[in-house]
Amino acid sequence: MTVATRNRAERARENAAQAREMLGECRFCAHDCGANRLAGPAGLCHAGAETRFFGAQIEVTDELELIPTYAVALSGCDLRCAFCITGAESWNSRAGEWFDAGAIADRAVAALDRGARTVMVLGGEPSVNMHAALELVSHLPSEARLVWKTNAHGGPQARALLEGMFDVWLADFKFGSEACAQRLARISNYVAVVRENLRWAAEHSELIVRHLLMPGHLDCCWKPVAAWLAAELPGVKTNLRHGFWPAWQSRRHAELRRPVSEAEADAALGWARELGLNLIP
Fold this sequence. Notes:
The chain is of the alpha/beta class. It has a nine-stranded mixed beta sheet with strand order 3-1-2-4-5-6-7-8-9. The protein has one domain (8-279): TIM Barrel (Alpha-Beta Barrel), CATH 3.20.20. It starts with 7 loop residues before the first helix and ends with a strand. It has helices spanning 8-22, 87-90, 101-113, 130-138, 156-162, 178-185, 190-204, 218-232, 262-275; strands at 52-59, 69-74, 97-98, 118-122, 146-150, 168-172, 206-212, 237-241, 278-279.
């Protein structure tokens, strides 16, 4: 079932124009920095007004109910996660090719015609390129099932623009500890922001929450994340991912220099089952 809107493409076009104007005082993410991106690259994401992308292709490594998906990866991110597997592109808003929303939409529609089940917009963090993401939506058919793959660190402006645009929010809840968020992603007030966004997403779309289990972070991150989901969003679809790989700048942190152990994975799964989480593959 797709999002029920009077005309998603029309609303997306209007929201995209509004988002582009907002670049003059950008507050799409929870950093709320107010940077003037129309004047050039600025803010903690170092993004300007022009959007680039570093991937647009069929993917089959996401949640089973979403794949195959046509995944469009926009360059740039507002977080700096040391373990990011696409850090070279995600941290760099100038990576990749210039983004032509109409041309990418044509490729997405062709993929849907060949059997793709969804179109997924991701990054980096797609909120950084809100104007371009909404422009893409404006070119897609109303029956297309759209997925917003996000770090869930957006601000109120982003939520307002996204209402009614995407059928599924696929949201990362990376850290259960503020200390871990600060040390590994250079971010403060992380937990409160993500919780606010997840509550909103659960009310306005279908929500799938992801947690990448990190070595040495069972007690500080996964357990509090799982406990909060069980208490505040009971029944929410949750994907506990075990495939951590010490990528990008992981080796700067001693505990992240190895994959997750079998014992850690078993303990994490046991905790999820004890809490009654709705785990999905």
